[in-house]
Amino acid sequence: MLLERARIAIFGASGYTGAELLRLLADHPRAEIRALTAERQAGKSIGEVFPHLATYALPDLVKIADVDLSAIDVVFCCLPHATTQEIIKDLPRGPKVVDLSADFRLRDPALYERYYGHAHHALEAQADAVYGLSEHYRQAIEQTWLVANPGCYTTASELPLIPLLKSNAINPDAIIIDAKSGVSGAGRDAKVGSLFTEVSEGIHPYGVATHRHGPEIEQCLTDFAGRSIEVIFTPHLVPMSRGILATIYVRNAPNFDAEAIHARLAEAYADEAFVNVMPFKSLPATRHVRGSNLCLIGVHPSRVAGQTIIVSAIDNLVKGAAGQAIQNMNIQNGFAEHLGLTQQPLFP
Amino acid sequence: MLLERARIAIFGASGYTGAELLRLLADHPRAEIRALTAERQAGKSIGEVFPHLATYALPDLVKIADVDLSAIDVVFCCLPHATTQEIIKDLPRGPKVVDLSADFRLRDPALYERYYGHAHHALEAQADAVYGLSEHYRQAIEQTWLVANPGCYTTASELPLIPLLKSNAINPDAIIIDAKSGVSGAGRDAKVGSLFTEVSEGIHPYGVATHRHGPEIEQCLTDFAGRSIEVIFTPHLVPMSRGILATIYVRNAPNFDAEAIHARLAEAYADEAFVNVMPFKSLPATRHVRGSNLCLIGVHPSRVAGQTIIVSAIDNLVKGAAGQAIQNMNIQNGFAEHLGLTQQPLFP
Amino acid sequence: MLLERARIAIFGASGYTGAELLRLLADHPRAEIRALTAERQAGKSIGEVFPHLATYALPDLVKIADVDLSAIDVVFCCLPHATTQEIIKDLPRGPKVVDLSADFRLRDPALYERYYGHAHHALEAQADAVYGLSEHYRQAIEQTWLVANPGCYTTASELPLIPLLKSNAINPDAIIIDAKSGVSGAGRDAKVGSLFTEVSEGIHPYGVATHRHGPEIEQCLTDFAGRSIEVIFTPHLVPMSRGILATIYVRNAPNFDAEAIHARLAEAYADEAFVNVMPFKSLPATRHVRGSNLCLIGVHPSRVAGQTIIVSAIDNLVKGAAGQAIQNMNIQNGFAEHLGLTQQPLFP
Amino acid sequence: MLLERARIAIFGASGYTGAELLRLLADHPRAEIRALTAERQAGKSIGEVFPHLATYALPDLVKIADVDLSAIDVVFCCLPHATTQEIIKDLPRGPKVVDLSADFRLRDPALYERYYGHAHHALEAQADAVYGLSEHYRQAIEQTWLVANPGCYTTASELPLIPLLKSNAINPDAIIIDAKSGVSGAGRDAKVGSLFTEVSEGIHPYGVATHRHGPEIEQCLTDFAGRSIEVIFTPHLVPMSRGILATIYVRNAPNFDAEAIHARLAEAYADEAFVNVMPFKSLPATRHVRGSNLCLIGVHPSRVAGQTIIVSAIDNLVKGAAGQAIQNMNIQNGFAEHLGLTQQPLFP
After folding, report:
1. For the residues of C268-332, what is the DSSP string, one character each?
2. For residue B285, which residues of chain C lie inside 8 Å, CB to CB?
3. Per the structure, how many domains does chain D have?
4. What are the tens digits of pLDDT across the range D300-315?
5. Disulfide engineering: D54 pairs with which of B60, B342, C111, D47, CB 3.0-4.6 Å?
6. Do C109 and C36 share a structural domain?
């Protein structure tokens, strides 16, 4: 039985992904926002927390314990990892859940523990979770109550690589992902490293060889490569609020050149609304996807024979978070996949 | 007879206001884009000129001479001043026109000539033009074929001041408008002064005492004050792409204090969808209106008795250009005024 | 007896003003840095706290209690207000002190208490403190052990206004200061309001009518006006790391016009190395003083008769903090006033 | 015979590298600026072209033809390529020349023609030119009248790679340089692609596989590797005015790991004032070298066995242009190499 309108709760609505869900859902014809939570800000209006949403009629913030889940069809969960699993494991079955944290992305509890520093406490829910890279896990998403929405770096990295690994178009051993992110990826917490004065007018790498999105990318690519995949993954912080650019260096498989790689990608995404493979040798800019659910992918031959450069761009808060979450909610509930996601990019 | 759908042409679609019209009209249920012009880029697709719109199905750019105006209901004219009047004076009567240039804003040809450096050549059309500050000229806009869409600084300055002058709440002699603009106000032309390296990480005033929006503000305020108004108006360039903030210093009229001034504004705009008077002593930020058609207005008492500080914020490309143009098109054509303009602000 | 070289301690060296003192003192031929303190980071090298200074040979951070003050000639005190007065009141007499906090700027303890929220606990030291606006309190600075270094907004506001009030060139009742600041003025503390994502691509006013620099400006201007002065002072936050721009609106005194006001300012600062009055009608940009101890001042006639617009620009961390502190140290110690302060601005 | 003071002319002083030479030379005790040229702006003061230098006593701009070269010891040539070779080939022998254009960097005229689109017309001068990567061509620089100052990307790429290729610490076949630049690298010309609105809040690759710094890097690395080197080199444009970050992916040579690679680099630059190898696993940020002649280099092991990530950061206008030019001038003239180059970085 399909819902006419999904009654929605957002847990952790006072962060940037919460605000972005609200922005996008305002245009969703089959979504109705029923509850917004923020434990420390319960009682406030959304306008007190996000002045840019002050003119938008929305329920006030409450605590999770005060949400009547029997009147909720979909929960978007935007809580920090660790907290998330405690909340989700105790949820009554009924609402469908799209979780934007990292808690249910890694299937291997030992890997989770190594990267997140503590044991996983919701292994039962973990067993039901489906990785929410919409274009590639669509059928499983339709069936599950719990979607583990992918990370931002991972979405930008996986979308261009999956079709190439599936079709053996590239050497799976030599993948390098040099990724660049805007600052909203660090969330709305007060941290010295995210201050304007520490970020503006400069660029630097961080989390090299240790970033938590590394194993997530590898798990997903391994799903499609038919063998274990390791990647070199280097994140950088760029003075912009939104956007992820992934510059990916691959070695062509025998009998493949950059043009054939481009053709393979173009074919793979020919019918997808949100993944756009640009003309051969055109390359994307993050500012051209700002505010939209698009992933742009460009392919360029390298100066060095036998190698190809692939560049993808997304808005980390949309296709890298809230937008893909809505896309997954649409899939789970049998809605047209583009509902709430038709806004054009905002440029300049 | 009302149109079911307006068939639209955009003249000068390769600039920022053209792109912004396209972004907003994509969500307008009763607009159909039929022709886009750009004289020097005729033949190109919109994606070649604006990569962020590459996935949006739109007609290719053509020359104005190649547009079949008999199949057009509305022309948005985004051409430079001077060129604009040459085009508009030769248009066949039929399509309604919203002109985003400055050519039809000043009613006095001598004033136009003084500020724009050449005589006005379309005085007949000028006589029909209605100034398009939607909230205050609505009835005349309904009747005219030609709307002179207001400037960005002027919209931000006029909206808070009109109700106060109408109700004699402030001293009309001592108005100071200290205004701050983002860089998109300068358009997409290659100019040294708009380079990233010349704008980033700094602020400076420009056009002091000479800016063309000065006489436009005065003409409009004079309409409502019942006497001639002069203003001090100082524009500044801020390292941001979008946004206008106007910090306005007024002397209270006898028997008025800041709170009464606030009440007068709140009352004036109580029923308006796009003008929001914030709670007393709250003040707006430009980033909280980005991408939306909102004008936020805040009122604060000054440290000095008898004076009040009023701050307004708009997105110069939306309420200050393309958004208000669509609002005016809606009024002209009998559409609900909010169509195409319901997007929430994009933050961060 | 003049010092050959001043042995210097910086208290609170882990903030931005501390870093800026280090940058400038590296070029000071008569300064020798002997001790750097930071209570919570004691034991670290400066490179751990400020990677940009990692190649600069400096002592490690220690606690104030571990500094041998008998071997120190000058203390730059960069501590938060309240803490500052507790430290300074217990200092042994001997070292000269330039205090960059607000604790000794306001002479009236009641005013201090009103604006800073607690009583002043070092009134004896307060009685010795000299306000360190170098160009105007030079003789008193030479004589004192304790300089209260001015605030950033206040320096930018006072330098253009003092000569005009002294010479009765302007109406002292109607001064409006619309000021714009970079983000480093908020310091290096982790605050949501200073995050890149909250500051970038926008502008907003803050502290309207309540900012602590308001009474400081009034106290200083009152010193020179020969009567009590009140000002309207409106700070705004701009997406840039450094810089203050003050746009000042004044009413001309009878017999003065903008040109005469310009002449008065040009004459007042003709012999000053760090205050530069630009040609009449030229106006400054903050980016043109970045990294330098310059204050640029421009004067422009208004559109409205009898009024003048004066614009000043400084780097808030240099002339608005560390640079002026070094200038004051030079004055106190009989050094040439420009030592350590000869760097040209960094542009772009 | 050593010069007491070098009498200096700057050809093409109205661009960013010209301004940067002026800023740095202001602190150079043995440099005296005698002539500044700018063909189209001849007759103007430097303050008209660069307001930030208005208070600095300098000669007005003249045409090259009006410079008395017999009274000049050193010419810094900041002209566009192609123009440069025409000027330099006709210079009288006498002044030493540091050329900041690309015209004398590539030794192979065929390669020059392929990348720059026209034949080289000054092959005689080319034969005398020495590539000015100061740390590695010092002895030849001492002997030549003509230094071809390296490009910005190339300096950042070559400094970390040369010692590793010389000592066979890395596989020379698999070098990937993912480089990120600030906007000042594009110069001060009015171009749409350098507008604030086109650059702010985003990142994109450009010149992939075709950028002119590709062959320059290969020529230099080939000099030290003892065999022909090919590199993959991908430039990106970052919303910042200054800075280059090069993230370099290398495969370790047999018997080398990341730590051994780090040790090799640390040893190679132990005695260099301007190249600083950070502690193992520390990585640089461009904002930490802003305004200084420093190159910071960091080394980190990869997640994938046998591979290492090396990151270098410079200020493109200093070590990547004007600073290295002064360093080369110092070497050519027997001055201490650090003269004029001792400024600490400007942060924030």
Report:
1. HTTT-SSEEEPSTT----GGGTTTS--EEEEEEE-SSTTEEEEEEEE-TTIIIIIHHHHHHHHHH
2. 202-204
3. 2
4. 999 999 999 999 999 9
5. D47
6. yes
The pLDDT mean for chain D works out to 97
The residue in chain D having the minimum alpha-carbon distance to the alpha carbon of residue A214 is: D303
Q: Which of residues 120-179 of B touch C (CB under 8 A)?
A: 176, 178
Binary contact (A346, B284; C-beta < 8 A): no
Q: How many B×D Cβ pairs under 8 Å?
A: 62
Q: What is the pLDDT of residues C147-161, one digit of tens each?
A: 999 999 999 999 999
pLDDT for the residue numbered A174: 83
CB-based contact, C284 to chain D, within 8 Å: yes
CA distances for A11 relative to A67, A72, A83, B247, C337, angstroms: 10, 12, 11, 37, 59
Res. D174: pLDDT tops 90: no
Band the pLDDT of C1: cuts 50, 70, 90: low
Contacts of A290 in chain B (CB under 8 A): 52, 346
Is residue C142 located within the same domain as residue C284?
Answer: no
Q: Do B200 and D16 touch (CB under 8 A)?
A: no
Judged against a pLDDT cut of 70, whether residue A319 lies above it is answered with yes
CA pair distance B207, B216, nearest whole angstrom: 14
d(CA C102, CA C100): 7
Q: Inter-chain contact D204–A283, Cβ cutoff 8 Å?
A: yes
d(CA D161, CA D232): 13
Q: Do D342 and C53 touch (CB under 8 A)?
A: no
- State both tokens at C48: 């751990």
Cα distance from C202 to chain A (closest Cα, Å)? 12
Cβ pair A16:C199 closer than 8 A: no
Hey, is D295 helix, strand or coil? strand
Contact residues on chain A for C16, CB-CB shorter than 8 A: 197
d(CA A346, CA C201): 13
Whether residues D209 and D279 share a domain: the answer is: yes
Neighbouring-strand partners of residue D293: none
Q: Is the same domain home to D328 and D212?
A: no
- pLDDT confidence of C2, banded at 50, 70, 90? confident
CA angle D178, D179, D183 (to 5 degrees): 150
Q: In what order do the strands lie in the sheet with C176-181?
A: C204-205, C232-237, C176-181, C244-251, C307-314, C295-301, C275-277
Asked whether residue B189 is assigned to any structural domain, the reply reads yes
What does the block give as tokens for D336?
Answer: 């201490």
Distance, CA of D159 to CA of D284 (rounded, Å): 14
Q: Fill in the amino acid letter for D121.
A: H
Which amino acid, one-letter code, is at D279? Answer: P
Same domain, B213 and B295: yes
Whether A323 and A309 map to the same domain: the answer is no
Which residues of A have a catalytic role annotated?
152
CB A35 within 8 A of CB A67: yes
Write the single-letter amino acid at B319.
K
Residue A287 touches partner C, C-beta closer than 8 Å: no
Low-confidence ranges of chain B (pLDDT < 70): 1
Residues 6 or more apart whose Cβ sits within 8 Å of residue C242: B201, C182, C184, C286, C290, C291, C315, C316, C317, D348
> Helix or strand or coil: residue C72?
coil
pLDDT value at position D2? 72
| Two tokens, residue B306 | 């008898």
Query: What's the DSSP call for residue A157?
Result: H
Q: Which residues of D touch A301 (CB under 8 A)?
A: 209
ipTM over 0.90: yes
Q: Which chains touch D (3 or more CB pairs under 8 A)?
A: A, B, C
Segments in chain D forming alpha helices (H): 16-25, 46-49, 83-89, 109-116, 123-128, 138-143, 152-166, 196-199, 213-225, 258-268, 323-332
A35 within domain boundaries: yes
- Does one domain contain both C170 and C305? yes
Strand bridging mode B6-11 / B74-77: parallel
